[in-house]
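Quick one, probably user error.
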């Protein structure tokens, strides 16, 4: 018997098959491009992405054949705020608008008037922002009324993939929270927020705790993808929550550090914190996949910035490395100098996350000279990405959310140098699990808990998650970074007026 984890991200999707002991038996990945039909718009071709998701499932299941038993259960991890419009008979009706798309921003002032931050936070656990689903759905209703009326369901990706595989239209609490339409305490859609958005409850899925069984793979789909008919579908969750499960961040005091397209620190806590402090930090409160726990997200476009650096400063090297099967990221990181970089970077290359959610800033590089090597620039960028995270991390204890260690996952966690840099700047241990593809492992673990393979997440994680290495902060290096960190903290306050005028 095996477990299938599916992870749907902003730029690619992955499926992986695991044994009940946590052995990775197979993995398949497909990449896709976002569409930008107008300035500020960002969306995915839902049909194309669904076909690629099916391709990864088919590939992973085929590659695992003969290594262990058939897939008993599956679950899906997915990006947070984007939704897909579908019909009851599982026809896809349109593209999926991504969280950093500007559509819907014009509704925010009116919503702020109707629900000030403190009131919205008590209800929803979020501070106001255009990255959530609500403003996008309101935009669709007003600007694409035919699409809105034709859609029987508006499904976040984990719910959408489960639905297309044969499950009922259901969503977990964590992803529901990413809509800005969720009542955290009632664990249901908020009538008040639905009424403000003039949105129909009937178009939204039923809600449940992650890990709840929501159906079985339909026979026709099973035949197409090589899955056993009747394989169980457990409700998946928001990708950051799945990542946390997949690296063992399931108890208060521990955080997951996802190092992918977004760099995201996800602390775990067991009660709702003080709203005023959370609002000042720009932090949300969201249900974890683990019952009785909550998480929050400190994020920026870290991986996207690294990709920009690769494509801008090492385009030819990238092509040569691809031809010869070399890891271009490892080679570029090896060029970084020892010690603190001479370059100070503000990583505002795209709309930012907490604490301010700035959508009209720009990236900044300070300290460029003719003698500056590209390795200096890369290290400055990684330091800036990490300092961005630390600035919010430093405020967590005052909100009642201590973080004593973090578990690093995602593509960036393969780099020893980046993980040591993170530990040195954060000042806490950074632990790398043996399997860093935590999204698919977390989804598979959730599937196993839902299917009754383990009675609890604690026992599931003990079986599925193995640790590889701990990177301890080096006191002397941490001290060396303090002056640079203080300089970093001054960049945005000093330059915000100028950057917003660009």
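Nope, works fine. Designed sequence:
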């Amino acid at each position: 018997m095996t477990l299938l984890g599916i992870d749907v991200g902003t730029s690619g999707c992955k499926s992986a098959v695991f044994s009940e002991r946590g052995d990775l038996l197979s993995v398949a990945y497909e990449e896709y491009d976002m569409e930008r039909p107008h300035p500020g718009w960002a969306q995915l071709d839902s049909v194309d992405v669904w076909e690629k998701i099916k391709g990864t499932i088919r590939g992973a299941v085929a590659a695992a054949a003969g290594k262990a038993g058939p897939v008993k259960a599956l679950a899906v991890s997915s990006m947070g705020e984007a939704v897909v419009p579908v019909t009851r008979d599982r026809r896809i009706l349109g593209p999926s608008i991504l969280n950093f798309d500007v559509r819907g921003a014009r509704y925010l002032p009116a919503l702020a008037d109707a629900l000030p931050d403190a009131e919205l936070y008590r209800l929803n656990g979020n501070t106001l922002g255009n990255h959530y689903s609500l403003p996008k759905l309101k935009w669709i209703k007003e600007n694409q009324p035919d699409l809105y009326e034709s859609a029987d369901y508006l499904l976040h990706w984990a719910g959408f993939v489960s639905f297309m595989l044969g499950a009922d239209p259901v969503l977990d609490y964590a992803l529901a929270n990413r809509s800005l339409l969720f009542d955290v305490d009632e664990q249901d859609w908020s009538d008040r927020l639905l009424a403000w958005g003039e949105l129909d409850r009937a178009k939204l899925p039923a809600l449940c705790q992650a890990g709840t069984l929501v159906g079985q793979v339909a026979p026709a789909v099973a035949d197409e993808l090589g899955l056993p008919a009747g394989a169980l579908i457990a409700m998946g969750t928001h990708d950051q929550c799945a990542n946390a499960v997949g690296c063992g961040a399931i108890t208060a005091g521990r955080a997951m550090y996802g190092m992918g397209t977004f760099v995201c620190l996800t602390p775990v806590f067991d009660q709702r914190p003080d709203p005023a402090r959370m609002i000042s930090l720009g932090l949300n409160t969201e249900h974890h996949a683990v019952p009785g726990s909550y998480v929050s997200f400190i994020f920026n476009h870290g991986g996207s910035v690294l990709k920009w650096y690769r494509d801008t400063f090492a385009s030819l090297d990238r092509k040569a490395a691809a031809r010869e099967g070399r890891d271009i990221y490892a080679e570029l990181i090896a060029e970084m100098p020892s010690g603190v970089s001479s370059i100070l970077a503000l990583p505002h290359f795209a709309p930012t996350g907490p604490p301010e959610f700035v959508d009209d800033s720009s990236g900044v590089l300070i300290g460029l000279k003719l003698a500056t090597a590209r390795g200096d620039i890369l290290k400055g960028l990684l330091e800036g990405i990490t300092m961005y995270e630390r600035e919010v991390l430093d405020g967590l204890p005052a909100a009642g959310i201590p973080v004593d260690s973090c578990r690093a996952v995602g593509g960036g966690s393969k780099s020893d140098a980046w993980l040591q840099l993170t530990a040195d700047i954060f000042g806490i241990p950074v632990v790398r699990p043996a399997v860093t593809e935590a999204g698919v492992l977390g989804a598979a673990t959730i599937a196993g808990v839902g299917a009754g393979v383990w009675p609890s997440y604690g026992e599931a994680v003990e079986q599925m998650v193995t640790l590889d290495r701990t990177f301890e902060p080096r006191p002397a290096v941490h001290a060396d970074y303090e002056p640079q960190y203080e300089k970093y903290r001054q960049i945005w306050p000093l330059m915000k007026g100028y950057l917003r005028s660009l």
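The two ends are 57 Å apart (CA to CA).
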